[in-house]
């Protein structure tokens, strides 16, 4: 192996923490996280369930790309309603109508100081929408869209949830983690209706991913965010219920959820397919197996009772 091959192999095995990787790529941490979610930056699993890491080889690939770092920053640049409307040369009211009817999908959101939801959109996607649908940017709103708006239609939260869930499912192949991701957008009552086994529900709770990086500490703001995280439209709820049922079947076939042993009370992993579950042996505190007795009394106790009766008769 040549010196160049050795250096290349070492670069491929070295990994950086997210903060260090963001600095190497000249990105803000929020930009870096979004680039990872969108698949622009390939990551590897962290040790012992820790945060994902970025290979030095991936850093080198991105830094060598044409237009670095501006091109990478542009791919994750986001704007709100006002800036998005300016980008498309339309009014903020028209932009909001397009967003509420699902023509443009938010990539993330935050709460302003008045606890109002501020939706953010990818500039790259907005420009692509403008090129594909120029007729929706001018003239009167089509009658079908006007009817939806008059009925109070607002698909922004629903589309954001679907998009965020898709990102989570794309980065994991573990069946239980996939089921947990789907369950994260359903309320506890709905999950209990689909997942009737309490040990399976416990497994999903442990693996439940965070849809947003951090939730506000204020109770009022926390309540606003919670409403955005859960499916609230009948069609959306039904869709996720069906997907959860399917994901749960796949997870069960892969590896049944762990449950406590009947005698010891300790949680034991369920046997894999084709294995026979062995009943646990009762072991006292001393660590030795219990000896089987012939009756409800030991031999010494019976002997003492017989001697006592003999003395009483004499």
What topology does this entry show?
Layout: H1 3-13, E1 15-16, H2 18-24, H3 29-37, E2 54-55, H4 56-63, H5 70-75, E3 78-79, H6 81-88, H7 92-100, E4 108-111, E5 117-122, H8 123-132, H9 143-150, H10 156-170, H11 175-183, H12 188-194, H13 198-207, H14 219-229, H15 234-254, E6 259-260, E7 267-268, H16 299-313
Antiparallel strand pairs: 1-2, 3-5, 4-5, 6-7
Helix pairs in contact: 2-3, 6-7, 11-13, 11-15
List keywords for this structure.
314 residues, 52% helix, two-stranded antiparallel ribbon, three-stranded antiparallel β-sheet, single chain, mainly alpha
Task: Describe the 3D structure.
The chain is mainly α and about 325 residues long. It is about 50% helix and about 5% strand. The protein is built from 16 helices and seven strands. It has helices at about 5-15, 20-25, 30-35, 55-65, 70-75, 80-90, 90-100, 125-130, 145-150, 155-170, 175-185, 190-195, 200-205, 220-230, 235-255, 300-314; strands at about 15, 55, 80, 110, 115-120, 260, 265-270. The strands form three sheets. It has a three-stranded antiparallel β-sheet. β6 (about 260) and β7 (about 265-270) form a beta hairpin. α2 packs across α3 (about 30-35), α11 (about 175-185) packs across α13 (about 200-205) and α11 (about 175-185) runs antiparallel to α15. It is globular. The model is unreliable at about 270-300 (pLDDT under 50).
Element-level helix/strand string: HEHHEHHEHHEEHHHHHHHHEEH
SS-based structural class?
mainly alpha
**Using DSSP, what is the number of strands?**
7
> Overall mean pLDDT score?
84
Q: Indicate the low-confidence ranges by residue numbers.
A: 270-298
Helix content: 40-55%
Shape: globular
Percent range for β-strand residues: 5-15%
Rg calc: 30 Å
Number of separate helices: 16
Largest sheet: 3 strands, antiparallel
* Cα distance spanning the termini: 99 Å
What spatial order of strands do you see in the largest sheet?
Answer: 3-5-4
């Amino acid at each position: 192996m040549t010196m160049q091959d050795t250096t290349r192999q070492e670069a491929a095995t070295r990994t950086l923490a997210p903060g260090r990787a963001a600095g190497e790529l000249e990105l803000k941490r929020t930009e870096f996280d979004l680039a990872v979610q969108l698949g622009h930056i390939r990551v590897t699993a962290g040790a012992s369930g820790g945060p994902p890491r970025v290979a030095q080889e991936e850093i080198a690939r991105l830094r060598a790309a044409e237009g670095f770092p501006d091109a990478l920053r542009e791919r994750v640049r986001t704007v709100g309603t006002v800036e998005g409307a300016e980008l498309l040369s339309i009014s903020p009211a028209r932009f909001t109508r397009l967003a509420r009817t699902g023509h443009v999908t938010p990539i993330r959101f935050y709460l302003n100081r008045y606890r109002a939801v501020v939706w953010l959109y990818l500039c790259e996607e907005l420009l692509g929408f403008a090129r594909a649908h120029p007729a929706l940017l001018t003239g009167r709103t089509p009658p079908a869209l006007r009817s939806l708006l008059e009925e109070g239609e607002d698909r922004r939260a629903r589309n954001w949830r679907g998009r965020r869930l898709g990102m989570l499912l794309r980065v994991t192949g573990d069946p239980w983690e996939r089921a947990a991701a789907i369950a994260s957008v359903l309320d506890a009552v709905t999950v209990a209706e689909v997942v009737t086994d309490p040990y399976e529900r416990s497994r999903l709770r442990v693996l439940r991913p965070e849809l947003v990086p951090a939730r506000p500490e204020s109770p009022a703001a926390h309540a606003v965010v919670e409403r955005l995280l859960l499916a609230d439209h009948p069609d959306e709820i039904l869709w996720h219920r069906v997907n959860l049922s399917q994901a749960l079947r796949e997870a069960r076939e892969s590896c049944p959820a762990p449950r406590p042993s009947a005698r010891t009370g300790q949680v034991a992993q369920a046997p894999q397919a084709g294995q026979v579950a062995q009943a646990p042996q009762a072991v006292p505190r001393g660590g030795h197996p219990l000896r089987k007795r012939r009756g409800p009394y030991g031999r010494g106790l019976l002997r003492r009772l017989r001697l006592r009766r003999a003395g009483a008769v004499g």
